[in-house]
Amino acid sequence: MEILDTGVLSEFYGSNVDRFWGGKYVRSLEKQWTEFFDVKHSLSFNSATSGLIAAVGALGIGPGDEVIVSPYTMSASGTSILFYNAIPVFVDIEDDYFCIDADKIEKSITPHTKAIIAVHLFGQPADMTSIMEIARKHDLSVIEDAAQSPGAMQKNRYTGTIGDIGVFSLNCHKAIQTGEGGMCVTNNPELAKRLALIRNHAEAVIAGGMEVKDPANMIGYNFRLTELQAAIGRIQLEKLEEINRSRQNYVDYINRMLGQVDGIHVPAVRDECTHVYYNYNIQVDEEVLGLPRDLLVRVLQAEGIPVWSGYVKPLYLYPLYSQGGVYGKVGCPFSCTYYKGLKQKYAKGLCPVTESVNDKIICMQDLRGILKEDDLKDVGVAYYKVVENKEKILNWAKLNTNNKQESNIVHQ
User: Fold this and answer.
1) What are the sequence ranges of the domains in the chain?
2) Which CATH superfamily does the domain covering 240-311+355-410 fall into?
3) pTM value?
4) Topology match between the domains 2-239 and 240-311+355-410
């Protein structure tokens, strides 16, 4: 109420003054985030998408550069690379953890590779131990896309705090949220300064006297969080551990039920990691289960279970990539004169594990701290009900298909 009473909803100035860094609540949230995640610098953004764009820019990535990334992620993990006319190089995922397969990264590194974006998908940490070893060996920067994994840990370190820059989301779908919002963290003071400049009109601030070591990518934007959002974020962060524990308990309960069903594979958790379950995702072995994945989803939805088939199609199948041009009509960045690497073949078959996983996975997102034990039981009961009646369901589906075919013939 204090913010509403003052009428001051943002205290950012896009100039080289103290308020370049934002107002009371923005700074308070950033301080609280820094302490919670045990990092040196935290910067708020108006979205994780903005944070990813700023992270790629802060690292000086530009035309002719390549950045390695998973194809199984929200679109911004890839478009943040395209934003600077750089080339996304998609590396396939693990079939059990759904994150980028570290064993496949090295063969995709070229003289043009500048960074790796490690996405901690669904709340599961990527294999940061291996990824950081590869990055150090090849002198690459690492951005962690921790949008879906706030509070997840690998070897007692929070996801987002292991690489050069970590990016978190405060979008309304996430475990903690401010409606829209994001955070970036880093232990590098120069990267922190560059992130802040990209967030808030770098060109004007530098013109006003703020010094920066490298002017590359120092075009700024309005990626600023409001005071009202920051105040909400402070309260939300205090609840993060409780929310994550609730989600983990929900998943343990559901796993005990669904783990008994042949043909259903419940989520695996990487060794020495904690999973925070942005989504609850199972894989279906259609042959063992005796039901097609999509038919199972259709019947579960009829039972009131909030599930859907697949997560997202692999990013390289988006028209943005497959049609071969992003900026203007000349095909940049893929045909940019500064790009001397091999032309990327963004087509079906590029990442077969990703495509296979998306054909087998069933997603359920509603794990937001409001479920009761009866709700969790309903999930298990619905699956059991479907499996016990699968012959009837198959016959119904066959009859329904035949009726549709007959109807089409009649109307031809």
Assistant:
1) 2-239, 240-311+355-410
2) Aspartate Aminotransferase, domain 1 (3.90.1150.10)
3) 0.94
4) no
What is the torsional sign of CA 102, 103, 104, 106?
Answer: positive
Q: What is the DSSP string of 242-269?
A: HHHHHHHHHHHHHHHHHTTSTTEEPPP-
Residue 406: the pLDDT is: 37
- pLDDT tens across 80-120, in order? 999 999 999 999 999 999 999 999 999 999 999 999 999 99
Beta strand extents in 1-99 (DSSP E only): 41-45, 66-69, 87-90
pLDDT one-digit tens code per residue, 40-68 = 999 999 999 999 999 999 999 999 999 99
Q: Which two tokens stand for residue 93?
A: 């995922």
CATH 3.40.640.10 corresponds to the domain 2-239: yes
347 vs 313: CA distance, rounded Å: 12
3 state SS of 145: strand
pLDDT digits (tens, 9 = 90+) for 136-170: 999 999 999 999 999 999 999 999 999 999 999 99
Percent of the chain with pLDDT over 90: 82
Q: Write down the pLDDT at residue 1.
A: 57
Strands (E), 1-46: 41-45
Phi, psi of 337 (to 5 degrees): -65, -20
Q: Give the Å distances, CA to CA, from 147 to 65, 203, 312, 404.
A: 24, 28, 16, 43
